[in-house]
Write a structure and sequence with these properties.
The complex is a heterodimer of chains A (269) and B (303). Helix content of chain A is 39%, strand content 24%. With 269 residues, chain A is an alpha/beta fold. Chain B is 74% helix and 0% strand. The structure holds adenosine-5'-diphosphate and magnesium ion.
């Protein structure tokens, strides 16, 4: 639906450089899987795409123009935690979307529009298997149910770009596989551009059309935060590469293991 | 198909029911650590009642002793003496004014308390949300509110009486000024602690600053606001009684300080007990209110 172009992106917090020289172009409808060591800046990258934070330098283009520096309905997000509103029931969480979108100054739609919104929400709840939980508060839903609700809510917003930050990180393997099917179905249906951060490389290969690895290429042993992470590997997945254990192992090695130069730096100091 | 499969997989977390079929084994007697030993309902009632019982017995004992030495002693009146004095105030019209003093006092005090705390609550809600949610308002008002918070309210009392006269306005203002700054700050803090994820998510769903206040911030801080009011009621009573003691013609605090001149402990003690009862009832009502407004914040009671 919308393409994303990132050019020369850099992000620093004070003296610490988290991201540097990040260049990537995602065509509309692509599904990008982002992997990388913990703390290397994947969530930061996603927050920049969301508009919750701004890049220190570089260009981010979403759709037709430069990114609006605040969250907008163009981009939807599912976080690992705090992804639904705890003070609303499952049904109310979904109704809130229409309330915000066209509820005017009351933040609430009435009459026929409310009935339509309710029908749409009802259908969406059934779609993600939560029809039986419509009147429950998130606190009494399991982690998997909460994430399903979060995805349903985000999709009702009809975003052109869907951002996912380790959305299934806290779920059991069985539930996770079901969530994968659900997400794939919904993506095929809606055709939005997806950027998903995950620490599960199998998941990255299974769902994505492209796997991007974030890593640091430059190191300063005296000042570890002098250099940031960048995209070190960009793999387009087709039927062959998706099944290739060689590629999977290669990415796993990039993400998981300590590099020889890092070990040398620690022994030297 | 998918939906049905998933629905069946994970159940709603409150459907327990496991273990009812098991034969009941004799429970092993273990000495638990003090911090892990649970208290039964009856045990809690008994333990909770003990301090009250202790104070009551100590009072009865001391009172009986003094009255035995001097039957016209006024310092520690016996329960029947207090009860008849209290009943007089509640049921016998005053000779001069024809009023039922207890009810006139109670009505006047509660009205002042309600007005003062009401104004403070409104300020906490509007200013607290504005300061907590809108960076520009925060920059504008937070330093001021922080400074106002540390002014001792009772030091303002003479100023209020001079500026506003001895009427109701000064008393209500004292209560409001006394409790509002802390409430404003607390609500502002709570709003700032809202997870950034929720605020970002609301914006991706199309919320603007105002609708997010209505649909996200307000409901999220409601339980905290009620807790705030509960905590503020203690200081509010203090300011009320202080103001009434100095300039008033009726009110619970006024009565206590009036009869103090005649050492009428038989009136003062029931009045203190009456104030305590009113405070306890108010607190209980606020807890009920919170459960009714924000059931999501009280998951255990909601079952
Ligand atoms: N608001 C912030 N202020 C300072 N440092 C931050 C902030 N947010 C993230 N960081 C730092 O940026 C780095 C990357 O964080 P993050 O994007 O959350 O990593 P990832 O999601 O890849 O695990 C971390 O070292 C973290 O300490
Ligand atoms: Mg992260």
């Amino acid at each position: 639906m919308s393409r994303i172009v990132v050019h020369g992106l850099e992000k620093t917090y004070g003296d610490a450089r988290v991201l540097e020289r990040v260049n990537v172009t995602a065509e509309a409808g692509e599904f990008l899987s982002l992997v990388g060591a913990s703390g290397c800046g994947k969530s930061t990258f996603l927050r920049i795409l969301l508009g919750q934070e701004q890049q220190s330098s570089g260009v981010v283009i979403v759709g037709d123009g430069p990114i609006v520096p605040e969250p907008t309905p163009q981009r939807g997000i599912v976080f690992q935690r705090y992804s639904v509103f705890p003070h609303l029931t499952a049904m109310q969480n979904l109704l809130l979307v229409e309330d915000f979108r066209s509820g005017g100054p009351f933040g609430r739609v009435f009459g026929a529009r409310r009935r339509n919104a309710r029908q749409e929400a009802e259908a969406m709840l059934a779609r993600v298997g939560l029809a039986h939980a419509r009147d429950l508060y998130p606190a009494s839903l399991s982690g998997g149910m909460q994430q399903r609700l979060a995805i349903a809510q985000t999709l009702l917003g009809r975003p052109q770009i869907l951002l996912l930050d380790e959305p299934f990180g806290a779920l059991d393997p069985g539930i996770r596989a079901e969530m994968h099917d659900l997400l794939t179905e919904l993506w095929t249906e809606h055709g939005m551009t997806v950027v998903m951060v995950t620490h599960d490389i199998g998941e990255a290969f299974k769902l994505g059309t492209r796997v991007l690895v974030f890593d640091k290429v430059r190191h300063d042993p005296q000042f570890p935060s002098a250099y940031g992470a960048t995209i070190t590997y960009d793999l387009r997945l087709d039927r062959k590469t998706r099944a290739s254990s060689h590629h999977l192992a290669k990415v796993a090695a990039m993400v998981g293991t300590t590099r020889p130069d890092k070990t040398m730096a620690t022994t030297a100091s | 198909m998918l939906a049905r499969g998933m629905g069946a997989r994970d159940e709603v977390s409150d459907t327990g029911g496991e273990g009812t079929m098991r034969p009941s084994l004799p429970r092993p007697r273990v000495r638990l650590r003090m911090i892990n030993a649970k208290v039964s309902r009856g045990g809690a009632l008994f333990l909770g009642g003990l301090p009250f019982l202790f104070v009551a017995i100590a009072y009865l004992f001391a009172s009986a002793q003094r009255l035995a030495v001097n039957p016209s002693d006024k310092l520690l009146p016996s329960p029947p003496q207090m009860w008849s004095a209290f009943l007089d105030l509640a049921t016998v019209p005053d000779k001069r004014s024809g009023d039922l003093i207890l009810w006139v006092d109670t009505y006047a005090s509660l009205l002042r308390l309600l007005a003062g705390v009401g104004v403070a609550t409104f300020a906490a809600l509007s200013l607290g949300i504005a300061i907590g949610f809108i960076p520009r308002v925060r920059a504008f008002l937070l330093p001021f509110v922080t400074v106002v918070c540390v002014i001792p309210p009772l030091a303002l009392l003479p100023i209020l009486f001079i500026a506003l006269g001895l009427g109701e306005t000064a008393k209500i203002t004292l209560i409001a000024l006394g409790v509002a700054p802390v409430m404003v700050r607390d609500i502002a803090n709570r709003v700032m602690e809202l997870p950034a994820e929720l605020v970002a998510k609301a914006q991706t769903l199309g919320g603007n600053s105002w609708t997010m206040i209505l649909r996200l911030v307000l409901p999220q801080i409601m339980p905290r606001l009620i807790t705030c009011v509960r905590l503020a009621l203690g200081p509010a009573w203090l300011f009320l009684i202080a103001a009434e003691a100095i300039a008033s013609t009726e009110g619970l605090g006024y009565r206590i300080f009036l009869v103090r001149r005649y050492l009428s402990m038989d009136v003062i003690l029931p009045y203190v007990a009456w104030i305590t009862l009113l405070a306890v009832i108010t607190d209980w009502l606020l807890v009920r209110l919170s459960r009714a407004i924000s059931p999501w914040a009280h998951p255990l009671e909601a079952r």
